[in-house]
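Field: sequence (string)
Field: structure_tokens (string)

Example rows 1 and 2, in order.
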Amino acid sequence: MVAAIALIVAIGWRRSRRWWLVWLPVCVVVGLLGALAARLYVNSEGLASDPAPFYLWVWIGVFAAGVAVAVLGWRGSSWWRRGVAVLAIPLTLVAALLALNKWVGYYPSVQTAWGALTAGPLPNQIDAAELPGLRNTVQTTGKLVEVDIPADASGFKHRSEYVYLPPAWFAGPTPPRLPVIMMVAGEFNTPADWIRTGNAMPIIDGYAKAHGGQAPIFVFVDSGGSFNNDTECVNGPRGNAADHLTKDVRPYLAQQFGASDQAANWAVVGWSMGGTCAIDLTVMHPDLFSTFEDIAGDHGPTSGTKDQTISRLYGGDAAKWDEFDPRTAMMRHGPYQGVAGWFEDTVTPTNTASPYGGGGGHRPQSDAPTGFGGHDEFKDSDEAGAADDLCATAKTVGISCSVHRIISFHTWQFAERAFSDALPWLAAQIKTPGATDSPA
């Protein structure tokens, strides 16, 4: 409301006839072009699965129009109107960013946003140097440590990553050989996203508490190297992300924390782009991973259309597209033994007024709607039907899998719920001590 009022005041009422007939219409056109350009960019880059809500494009257009009003209306304006026009620019930008955040659910609270902005400490985070002093002690919660994993094998330039160690890791004189779950975030990401935004720590600690301190080790990896570098966890011009996760991260966990190095004890969990990474890493490397949870991933690594993907992710090498395509990889490798997967996807609530949707309940596949959240409006979206298609292919080559659906939208809140639902099954699949069999 403040942004809208500021922009109205900046436009003014006592203006020249030329302003009303020429310059204000130009500002409106600038706003429309700004909104259209943003929408075309999102579509061409394949940046989203659910079509954005209309109010996002409105606020982007209002922001672009506000910039035009400040620039084109500068001459002949009073000092106070100039000040209001300048003030309207950050206000409308914040409104647009709030609309974006409401769509994707990236920051569920001001506290979360402030923690990410200031890079404040994460829950139960300690310095790695403190770990020896905690050996052979009783811990009521797990501990999180920041690690700088050498990239000798991959050459992938990455940010610091995080390792969660459950209470059982500290209990004896030497670390037990615990199983590991690798956590991969979405396209625009930091390694801490699963922790800050996905609320993973309370979920994991809750599981550990219910199982006498026993839980897997978790590693929160960097699949991009920077916030907006969409690698899709493949090797290519954007970096050897696949090699980093398989040749750098995995050996490091075994060497530094005594984790198991057996494929049967490793799982990958991913959300959105990370969901694609989860199945891709597992079916391409069944000698390294045996279990995956694909949360709203695509049919395969995607960066726009197929031709755009081959160009952007593989430098024009079409053979690489086949190499990293999950269905092609499964058919080339099969049959598999001891590999299992959990797919989780959204079913849009009937009432689409809130982008966070209704968090509960499951709905049969036949009830899945189209339109907002059903992906038919986004011709470049590759998520539509991916869970069913991939699971169907997986079953033909001996991979045990199941498809689950939650009434929700494509947000971090959905990812949090999906991870919480699957964790008991994941822990049982990778043979976590104390885990009981949990049907998929």
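Row 2 begins here:
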Amino acid sequence: MTQVVTRFAPSPTGYLHIGGARTALFNWLYARGRGGKFLLRIEDTDRARSTPEATAAILQGMSWLGLDHDGEVISQFERADRHREVALALLEKGAAYKCFATQEEIEAFREKAREEKRSTLFQSPWRDADPATHPDAPYVIRLKTAQDGETVIEDEVQGTVKIKNDQLDDMILLRSDGTPVYMLAVVVDDYDMGVTHVIRGDDHLNNAARQMGIYTAMGWDLPVYAHIPLIHGPDGKKLSKRHGALGVEEYQAMGYPAAGMRNYLARLGWSHGDDEFFTDDQAKEWFDLDGIGKSPARFDFKKLENLCGQQIAIADDAALLQEIEAYLTASGGATLGSAQKDGLLRGMYCLKERAKTFPELLEKAHFILADTPLEIEPKAAKNLDTVSRGILDALTPHLQNASWTRDDLEAVLNRFAEDQGTKFGKLAGPMRAALAGRAATPSVFDMMLVLGREETMSRLAQAAAAGDAGSN
């Protein structure tokens, strides 16, 4: 059985678009789930718009998403000699011809066609001309496209698509300066790279009909085509800046975990029963082309956040910390010190719960990351009146010899509250303020366990002493 080979072939004219990221993901999943190869080609033939910075942004976006590719990154521009070689081979076979028509002649042909209300598709007078009549003038090389019948694309997503051949022109393969066109380069590169499955946006569907002519003329096997619908915004219109972030790197800088983005993008236009949340291994095992829908998918931030929260909850703590550090770098945030990293690792078990993004997780981790003495926010400060501070002062000795486990701490604090003629709930507000400087925090017991005995008692004592300082 032939090994599956897929490819992602972006043009380096900007960032890695969210739609491109999904295309890359689909190709990656299809290949990885079948022990195949996933290749990366940069389609940099448009020299005016292609930049090294855009190439770097695409590679960075794929790296963040965890979409590893096999082999070296291939530059389409660097393969121009090979593309020319194929164009000349087609010319030699009689499957292509030299066209000497000037731009003025082509425009005059179209103007006349418009006046006569017929197709403006250019029909070159040089298609069947005797080579002896060729002038010594600049020419392009055009593919001889069949003029009758139809081209049939058997597409794994769109089904059987038929395009009448009289709707297809004799497309240019080589420009008059000898440079190959994109449409030729794509076919030659896919063939030479051994691509078996071309999975790409359905805006390329018409291109497939034209590209198939090159495969047929060269006697090459066609790849399997799967043209996937585009992504729309929540309003059903094509995804654009007005709907929010378009570049993958923006999602990293907003603090979405890569696993959550992979999970969400996989579900965007593809389904496996009712499964919404799944791991990478499940996605590789389940992903197939027949699960891709024909209609455009709608981007939904709430679904993205929900899946991101579930992925954070099951993530490995050390890997999560590493990704949080990468997020802080991408967003221009502070660098974490070793003590802060240790604290985050200790507290990850309680920080991961219900955090949908890294900013939410780090907000919960304020008690770990904040410098001491803590700055108490106004809402929390209301819980630290004279009486509350006195209670915290009285509590400290009871913690001195407590066994630092959740059960023992709960027992000590409940007993202390009872001795004070109150319930633990009344202690929670002052303790949150003392331990985190905030009114909304993880549970008091989780904070005490993460901070440890020494730091917990130090913070309680500082809160109590602040009361004494205020009364002098």
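free_text_note (row 2): Residues 444-471 form the longest helix (28 residues).
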